[in-house]
Amino acid sequence: MRTIYYKIICFLLIVFVTGCTTLLSIRQPEVAAVRPRITSIDFESIRLAMDVHVRNPYPFRIGAVPAQLQLTVNGKKIFQGEIATATPIALVQTGKVTFPVALNYSDLFRLGKELANASEVKYTASGVVRVPVMNTTFDIPFSHQDSLPILRPPTVSALKVQLSDVTL
Description:
Layout: H1 2-26, E1 30-41, E2 45-55, E3 66-73, E4 76-84, E5 94-104, H2 105-109, E6 120-133, E7 136-149
Antiparallel strand pairs: 1-2, 2-5, 3-4, 3-6, 6-7
């Protein structure tokens, strides 16, 4: 009787191990979307939250996902950072890695004269998400292009006011 149990357990272990390796080779995690959010904006800077959505195709959860992000404007790097998710990505769902980014307008204006009078600036966010799954790490590159608004203070010109026949 024990030999039957041992054979069944060995068979299930073989099926489980080969099934997991086949699963890893067929499906891989992917970056589903990159969505920037403006969290605050004023006349000096703009603060963003760059949300990188990572899709988990597996029937088990994925642990902390480290990622790297780089922002470029006119081909010049203005931000680079690395962060990891605090919570694991649930099974067969999408998790989010959020990069807090702060950009000073003065730093942007140093990149070129054409940005000094622009009302918005185009940027490219690119990077890599490293997804650890069962002793294998998948490097998933991503790239996103968009534009950011630049606030300008209102201009005041000299006004000439004449008062004539003022009575109380």
